[in-house]
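hey so i finaly got around to running the thing on VanZ-like domain-containing protein from Paenibacillus xylanivorans. pasting the sequence first so u can double check i didnt mess up the copy paste, my clipboard has been acting weird all day
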Amino acid sequence: MLAIVACMATLYVLIMGNLLFVSGRTPGVNYQYNLVPLETIKSLLFEKNRYHTEAWVKNLFGNIILFIPLGIWIPWLFRRYRKILPFTGVVVLLLFAVEVIQLITRVGSFDVDDIILNTMGAWIGYIGFAFFIFSQRRTRN
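ok and heres what it spat out for the 3d tokens, dont ask me to read them lol
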């Protein structure tokens, strides 16, 4: 089972790498970034009419949904990240690294709110994983 999970996690990493750095991405000349927490999120929530529906959904929900699997793969593959604080720490560091790579390569954009939304998605996956583990332990007893 662990080998299957590892293969699925590898496939997930490859797909995400393509989405984040390759597919439809070209280095921008006029690079934008956001270092103010909740600035983009507030704009998406309270100024919804400024955005096309597709862009609004992708930015708000896509950043959450795409990272739910991260919350499953990390604690499943690495026991030391099965507690919430170490898990959150490694997720935030990983997401920060992705944003910095986007900043350096000018592919995508550095946005601290992406880290917040992506972390929320990972937490949702983590909660799902925790419920799965809890239910497995209950059925064994």
